[in-house]
Design a protein that fits this description.
By secondary structure, the chain is α/β, with parallel strands linked by helices. 35% of the residues lie in helices and 21% in strands. It contains ten helices and 13 strands. The strands form two sheets. The protein has a nine-stranded mixed sheet, with helices on both faces. Strands 3-2-6-7 form a four-stranded mixed sheet. Helix 1 (39-49) packs across helix 8 (275-289), helix 6 (214-221) crosses helix 7 (226-235) and helix 8 runs antiparallel to helix 9. The longest helix is centred in the middle third of the chain and has 16 residues, at 189-204. It is globular, with a radius of gyration of 18 Å. It starts with 6 loop residues before the first strand and ends with a helix. The mean pLDDT is 94.
């Protein structure tokens, strides 16, 4: 086997078709930009832009969009050896609407089934997964079989060696729900959470880091107060809980008692959709470097803010020089 990867992510991949007009409903948009997408993929790209060696485990359709994804991954310096084609399903596309500063509706085209949910346990390179310095999985990977079994099998193979991150990544529409978590008044958010929670709890038994916003933490814990969510995640076995709170900043709590509460980094928002993935890639960068909690959260916040001030997700991920310059200007 080659030298272990800094980061292997497993989960969604696809093509983002984002409007080139801001403040316009999708029905009236005339032109779109095409970008590599999918949260697990964007995290790998974000880490690669910061100089980390990474790979993605996912699947595409056997179509031109699948070809585009492979080329884009290679252009970003992300290993695509475990991104394979599924004959039966098309590569997913995702549209959004852009209404800054905080309204960015997403429209997922992932039916009848997304190829990234057809990752099978027997296809996994368990040696590479076990050897990676960081292994990253998402909540979406638990929503359907065979991806659910593959995700849990990968976590079991990992056996908490090194750093294993669970991105709570709550997408209720993938679980038969609508809206967000319970506090957002989703029509069936509570029912979708109830369906997802046992699988989230199963994943948490195998990970060392959990990261998500308050809605996502509620799926995993049944709680919404950030400190209570963090403590509940620690009680479920993780070593580090990271709770993103939007305009209230980010809370990080470690099992050893260390805590960091960092305010948000102000920025004029263009498209907020990629900010969380940039945060994730920068979080991995800081974990690999062994940074203390507060500077790591500030750095991750800054990376997220930079992407929120740009249109795209993957191609907007900042370099280390850009993050350093952005922090120095604050």
């Amino acid at each position: 086997m080659t030298e272990p990867y800094d980061l292997i992510t497993m989960g969604r991949i696809g093509v983002d078709l984002y409007p080139l007009q801001s403040g316009v409903p999708l029905a009236q948009v005339e032109t779109f930009g095409k970008f590599l997408g999918g949260s697990a993929t964007n995290v790998a790209v974000a880490a690669a832009r910061l100089g980390r060696r990474g790979a993605v485990i996912s699947r595409t359709g056997r179509d031109p969009f699948g070809d585009y994804i492979h080329q884009a991954l290679r252009d970003f310096g992300v290993d695509d050896r475990w991104v394979t084609a599924v004959d039966a399903y098309p590569t997913p596309v995702t549209f959004c609407e852009i209404f800054p500063p905080d309204d960015f509706p997403l429209y997922f085209y992932r039916r009848p089934k997304a190829p990234d949910l057809v990752i099978r346990p027997e296809e996994l390179d368990q040696d590479a997964i076990a050897a990676a310095r960081i292994f990253w999985v998402t909540g979406t990977g638990l929503c359907e079989e065979p991806s659910r079994s593959a995700t849990l099998a990968a976590l079991q193979a990992r056996a908490k060696v090194g750093t294993t991150v669970f991105d709570l990544d709550w997408r209720p529409m993938f679980w038969g729900g609508e809206g967000g978590a319970s506090g957002d008044g989703g029509a069936s958010g509570a029912a979708a959470m109830a369906a997802a929670r046992p699988y989230y709890e199963a994943a948490l038994r195998h990970v060392t880091v959990a990261v998500g916003n308050v809605d996502e933490a509620e799926v995993a814990t049944g709680l919404r107060e950030p400190k209570a969510c963090a403590q509940a995640l620690l009680d479920k076995g993780v070593e580090l809980a990271v709770i993103k709170q939007g305009p209230k900043g980010v809370l990080a709590v470690h099992r050893d008692g260390r805590t960091a509460e960092v305010p948000p980094t102000p920025v004029e928002v263009v498209n907020g959709l990629g900010a969380g993935d940039a945060f994730g890639g920068a979080l991995c960068h800081g974990l690999l470097a062994g940074w203390e909690l507060e500077p790591m959260m500030r750095y991750a916040n800054a990376a997220g803010a930079l992407v929120a001030g740009r249109l795209a997700c993957s191609s907007a991920m900042p370099t280390a020089d850009e993050v350093d310059a952005f922090l120095a200007s604050r």
